[in-house]
Structures
1.
Amino acid sequence: MSLKKKSDVDFSLEKKKHKKKKSLIVSLFATLALIIALLGAGVAVASILFLKDITSTLPTTPEIIAHQPSLATRVYDRNGTMITQLFQENRTWVKLDSISPWMVKAILAAEDDKFYEHSGIRPIAIMRAVMVDIFHRGAKQGASTITQQLARNLFLSSEKTIIRKAKEAVLALRLERIYTKDELLEMYLNTIYMGHGSYGIEAAARIYFDKLPGALTINESAVLAGLVAAPEKYSPFRHKQNSQTRKSYVLRRMLDLDWISKDDYDRCIEAMPALAGNTKRSNSLTLEDAPYFISYILFKQLLPDYGTDRIYRGGLRVHTTIDLDLQHKAEEIVAKMPHEGALVALDPNTGEILAMVGGRDFDKSKFNRATQAYRQPGSAFKPLVYAAALEQGYRAIDHILDAPLLFPNGWAPTNYTANKYDGEMTLVTALARSINTPAVRLAQIAGVGRVANLARRLGITTPYMPDDLSLSLGTASLTPLELAVAYSAFANNGYLAEPFAVKEILTQRGDTIEQNGPNLTGAISPTVAVTMRSMLQQVAAWGTGARGKIKDHETFGKTGTTNDCTDAWFVGGVPGLLTVVYVGNDDHKSLGSKATGAVMALPVWKEFMDYAVGKMNLPASFAIPGDAEVEAVSVCRRTGFLAAGGCQAIELLLPLGHAPSSYCPWHGGSIGEARSDENAPQLLLAPIDDSASADMYMMHIAPAAVPPQDSHETGGEIAGSPAEVPVTQKKAGESEPAKIPSSTGGSAYETDPSQQTDMEKRYQELLKKYNIIE
C-alpha cells in the first residue's frame, strides 16, 4: 500500500476516534446537565414544599396588621401622676420621634447599620451563617437584621434552628412590604427585651436611668443598645464591666460609621452614666404605691369588668380619684400606728376616694380594713340616731335625760363612766359629750326602724345591722368606707354620694371606654343635714373631738369607742374633705385601758387632715344651700334658750322659725318669757322614763339664779327652794315596738377573726381566678 493511502487511512481512524471521544464528552455533559437539572428541580420542588410548609404556620398579612403587642396598663392619680403599671410584659409604646436620635443611631450601629438599605434580609450574611451552622451541626451563627429580630420578637420563639431562621426571613420580607422603615424601627424599639423586666425603650429608659426615651444621651444610649444582644450579661446593675465593654463596642461602631464625633467618643468611652437609684422590678404581683387602693380597684372593678388580658396586656390608661400625695401621707401615718387600722378620705361633694389605706403593711397583710373589716363604730354611729330624731322635728336645743336605764329583760346600758349621770341636758350636749343613755332614749323615741332606715339611705349597706335599741350605741358592724359615705351627707347638705375610685379609662389610642363622675341621690333634707352638721361642729369645738379642730376651717366630727376599747374611731371633716380613721386589732383584743377614739384615732385623723388642708385649696366654711331653711342662733349650750350674758354660748343652725325667742333663765333671762315662749326647748321623755326619773334628774334653777323682778311670776315659790327650769315635758309614745337586746348587751355582728388570717389565701385565689398566676 502506498504511503498516501496509508496516511489517509490513519487520518480517517483518528477522525473517527475524535468524533467518538467528543460524542462521549457531550453525552457526559448532557447526563451531568440532566442530573443537575433534576437535582435543581428537586431542590426547587423541595424548597417550594419547604417554604409552603413553613409559611402555612406563619401569620397572614391581615393577622400581622392586626397584631397587638402586650402593653402595660398605667394607673394614674387625679393629678396625672402615675401610681403603678399592671403588666405581663412591662412595655409602654412611644413614637419614634419621641425617642432620642442618639438611641436610634446606637441601636442601628449595634444591630443593623444597613437597616435603611436592605429589604429585610441580607442574603450573603445568611449564607455565611448557614455554612457555619452546617459545619457546626447546629445553629451557631446569627445574621438577623432588625426586621428579622422584630419578626422573631412578635411571632416566633427564640430557639436557634434553621427552620426558625427560615420563618424569620419570610416574615421579615412580609413586614418590609407592609410597613415603612420608620414604622419597623419604632416597632422594634418598643418590643425588644432589655432586661430587668423592661420591654421596649420606654421601660428601659425609666428603669436604668429614670428618664424619658427622648432625653437619653449618647452614653446612655450606647449602654441600652448594648443590652439587646444579652440583657442579663450586659446589665449595668449586675455586670458593670461587661456593660462597659459592650458600651465601648457600640461607641466604636458609631464612630466608625461617622455618627458621632471623635470628641464625643473620647468623652464617653470611659465614663459610665449614672444609673437610677431604684432597681427594684415591679411585676403583676407587686403593688408598690397605694397597694390597698390598687388591689381594691383591681378586684372590684378592673378585672371583673375587663378581664386579665385587657388589663395586663391592653395598654389601658386608668385615671383614678386618689391624690398620691395624700395617699402617701396616709400610708406614712397608718404605718406608725401601734395597732392595725384603716384610713379613708373622700370628697364628700362628689364621692371621689382621695386616699385609702387598709392596714400598716400590705406585704404582711392583704386584708383591707377600709373596705373588708366589719367593725362596730360605737358612738360614731350616734349622729345617725340624732339625725333620725331631727327628721321627726326634734331640735338640738331640746332636752333629754342622762339617767340610769333598766329595761324589763335586765338590759341596763350605762355611760362610759359607769354610775355617773348628769341629768337633764340638751341634745347637742349629749351628742358633744357622747353620753350613752340619752342616745338609747332618743332611739326609743325616734324608733329603731327609722334609725335603720336612715342609715340605709345614707349608704350603710352592711348585712350586720341589729334591729334593737343597741343600734343606738353603735353595735352595727360596718366598714370604714361605709361610715365615710354616711357622714358625707352631713357635709354635702343631704346627698348620698356614691363612692367611686376610677374616673376614666382610655385605650392605648386615647379613646374613652369608661367614664365615671358624681352620682348623688337625695338622702336626707338639706335642713336636717345642715342642722346635724351644726351639732357635730360642737363636738369638734368643745366636745370629745375638741382636739381635732382644724385651724381656720369649720370642722365637724365624732369619736367612737366600743366596749372594752376594742375599736376606736374618729369620723369628720372640713369643707371638701371627709376622713375616717379606724384603729383596732384583727383578733378583737382590747386596745388598752382608756384607748378611746379621742386617744387612738383622733390624733391620726388630725395629723392627716392638717397635712391635707395645707395641701388642698379648700373653703374655710361650709356652704348653706338656699333650700336649707335654717337660721344661725346663739344659744346657751346648757339650756338651749337664747344665750344671755352669763351663758356658755354656742352657735347652732336651727330650722327656720323654730328657734326660741326668750333668753336663758339660768343666766339672767326672764322665767316668765321663757314659760310663754312657744319655741322654748322641751324635755323629751322616752317611753322607758317614768315620773320619778324625770323629777329626780330634771334641771333646776338655784334661787340665786332667779332675777328679783321675776319672783312675782312664780307666786313666791322660788324663794328658799329650787324651781324647775321652765321646760315643757313631752312624753313620747312608742312610735314602734322597741326591741330590747339581751341583758348581756353583746353583739354577734363582727367579722370572724379567721377572715384576716385567710386573706392571703383568698388573695392568691383571686390571682389564680384571673390567671395572673398559675
2.
Amino acid sequence: MRRARAVVAVGGAWLLVLGAALVQPACGRQAPDGEAALRAGRYEEAIRALSGAVQGDPANVAARRELARALAAVGRYDEAETAVGGPTGASASTALANVLGEILVARGRTADAEQAFRRALDGGAEAIPARSNLATLLWRRGEREAALKEFAALGDLYERREARSAADLVAVGSALRYLGERDPQRFKDARDAYNEAIAADPRAARPKLRLGELLLEKYNSTDAQALFREVLEANPRDARALLDLAKAKNFDGSDEALELTRKALGINPNLVEARAFLAGLRLGLEDFDGAAAEAERGLAVNPSSPEALAALGAARFLAGDRDGYEAVRRRAATSAPAAADFYIALAELSQQHRRYRVAKDFARQAVEADSLSWRGWGVLGLNQLRTGEIEAARRSLERSFRGDPYNVWIKNTLDLLDTFSRYESRRSARFELFLYGKEAELLYPYMAALAEAAYDSLARRYAFRPATPVRVEVYPSHADFSVRTVGLAGLGALGVSFGNILAMDSPSARDPGDFNWGSTLWHEIAHAFTLGASDGRVPRWLTEGLSVLEERRARPGWGDDVTPSFLLALRDGKLLPPSRLNAGFVRPTYPEQVAHAYYEASLVAEMIEATRGLPAIRAMLAAYGRGERNDDVIRTVLKVEPAAFDKEFDAYLHRRFARQLAALGPAGGEGGGGELARLVAEARERAGAGDRARAIALLERARELFPEYTGADSPNRLLARLYLEQGDRRAAEQALARLVAHDESDLEAEKELAALRESLGDRLGAARALEDALFIYPYAPAVHTHLAELYSALGEPAKAVRERAAVVALDPADRAEALYQLAAARLAAGDRAGAKRDVLRALEAAPDFATAQQLLLKLRAP
C-alpha cells in the first residue's frame, strides 16, 4: 500500500526550552527543601532555599544547577547565568556547562551556548543532553549534516541501551525525532524513548511535555492534554506546561488558549515562545500592532528567536508593511540560514487570514530553503489545493507524506484526493461544479442555476467579478468536507471559501432539515466577491457579515435571523462591539458566541448599508484591499471614530429589537421569558381546555411581540395548528408563511405550506414552497413529481422537464415510468429529439410498456 495507517503518537519538538520543565534528577548534594519547592512550582521558596545552599557551600554544583533552573523558570535569566558561573566561571565545572548553554540559548546567545555545550561534552552527568542540545543548535543554524552525525551517534547510544536516566532518554528522544526527518521509522523510537524517560522518573516534567508536544504535533490533542495536565497537577505554575496546554486548546478552538498563555507569561514573562504564541493569537484577531508588540517583547529577550521573528514578520507582512517585513526576513536569514521554519510559520499565519496564494508562495520558499522540509511540502500542498492546483497539490502532499508518513492531516487529505475519481466536474457559464458522481445528475441543474443567479446579483452589488470558473466542491460526507477544510474530521461549518475555490456539504451529508444548501452556496459565493474585492484582506467580521446579509437578500427566510439567545446576549451585555467582533469568531467565550457573531456581523453590515449606502461597503472593501487597517477604514470611509461607531451600532441594535427585548423579559426558557413566554404558556393552557379562540388571540399577541421567533413554541407554528383545527386554512397558510419567512430549514413546514396553498387554489404559491423545500432536501421523488405536475398545470414546461429529470436521477423503482414521464414532458416543451431519446430508454427498461410504445409511434409520425 502507498500509505500506512497514521500513527499519532510520534512527531517532534525543539529541545531547547527553559522553564520548570527543566527539572531533572541531579547528582551530588542538594537542598532537599529547595528541590521539593522547585518541583511544586514554589519558585521563590526554591530560590531562597537553593541560594542559601550555594552560599553555605559555593562548591555545591547540584544546588547551583537547580538554583539556575529555578531562576530560569521565572524568567530571571541573568541571575540564572550568574548562578552557574557565567561564560567564564562555568569553565571550571563541566557539570554546569549544559544548563548554562540552555540559558544562553534562551537569550539568543548561540555562539556562547555552543561553547558551553562543547565544554559539557568533556564529562559529567549531562554530557548526553549537552550533545543533543549542541546537535539541535547546529540543525537550527543550518549545519544539517553535522547535526545529523551527532543525532545518529545519540541514536546509537539508545540502541546500545547506554541512555538510562530520564534526562538522557529525553535527549536521545529528541535526537531520534530529528533523525525521523530522514527515516520516518525513527519517530517511533523517539516516542518510545520519551515513554522510557517517563518510566525512569515519573515525577519529571520534561519527558511528559516532550511526548505531549509530539502528540499535539501529530494532531492528537486529547492525549497530549492529558500529559500536560498531569504535569500541571504536580506543578500548577509550570509555565511551559501552561503554554503547551494553551497550544492544545488553541488546536481545539477553545478560548482558554489566551488565558493560559497569559498565565504562563505571568509566571515567566520572558518565556519567548509564549510571547510568540500570544503574538499569533493576536494575529488571529487581526490585531497586527498588538501581535508585533508581543513579538518585539520576545525578541528583546532572545533576538534570534525563530518563533518571534516569524510572528513579527507575519505581523508586518499582513499589515502591508513590506519594508518592515523585509527587515525581519533578513534578520531571520542571518539568525538561521536554513530558514524553512520561518517561511512555514509565515505560510500558516497567512492561511489563517485567508491569504492562500500568499501562503502558497511562502511555503514554496520554505521548500526551496530546505527540500527535506516535509512540513513545508505539506503546507505547500494544502495551499495549492486551496487555490485549485489539484495535481500539483497531490505531488507536494505525496512528497510530504513520503518523508513523514505519520502526519494525519496529510494522510487524510491524500485519502480524500483518492476519492476524487468518483466525482464529476460539470461546467456552467462561470462555475465548475465538482459533484459526487451518484448525485451529480440530480444536483447540477439546481446548483448551477442558483450559482449563476448569485454571480449576477453579487456582481451588480459589488461592482466586481471574481475570476472564473469559480470551483464549487460538494461533498456527500461531512467528514470529507471537514478534511478538505482543516485536514481532520469534526469541523462544525457547512461551507468554506478559499477565494474562488469553494467547498461545502452536499444536502446528503446531513439529515433532512439540518441545513439549507441553497443559502449555504449563496453565502460562500458571496465570500468569493468580498475576498476578491479586498485581495483577501477584508476582516473576518465583515466578510462573514456581508455573506449572511446577502443570504437574507437572496430569498425570504434565508440567512440567520434574530433568536432569543441573541437577544438575551444583547440584553446581558455579552455581544462584542464591532471594533472587537473578530474575537467572537476566533476566541468565543460562551457556547453560542460564534453563531451570535455571524448574525451580529450581518447587522453591522446592514446598518452600514442603511446609513451610508452600498457604495460605502464597496469603498471599505477597496480600502482593505489597499492594506488599510480596520480602525482606519472606519475613520476614512465611514467618517466616524471606531469608539463612536461602536456606540452607534449599540443604539441601532436596541432600537431595532426594542419590542423583542421587552417581550423576552429576564427569564430563560426556549422562547425566552417575560411577556412572550407568559402568552405562549397561557395559550397552550387555553387550547388544552378547549378554548381555541382565546388561545389564538393570545398567540397572535405573542406573534406581534416577536415575529421572528421560530422555536418549537413559536406562536406562528402553534397558530397554524390551531387554525387548521378550526378549519381556517387561509389563516393557517398565513401563519406557516410567516414561520418559513424566518426559518430557512423547516422542511415539513414548507411541504405543509405547499399543500395548504394548493388546497386554496394557489398552484404558483404551492410550487414556490416546494422549490424552497428542494433547497433543504432535494432527494424526495414525490416532491419532484408533484412539482412537475404543478409546473405542467402552470404552463412552465421547462421546469416540468427539470423535475421529471430529477425523478430519473433519483433512480426510482419504476424507472421506465419515470423515463416515460420525462419523455412526455420534453415533448410538451418542444424537444422531440430529447423525448425520443428518453422514451427509447424507457422501452429498454420495459420493452412491453404500451404507453411508451404509443408515445414512440407518435414521435415517429411525420
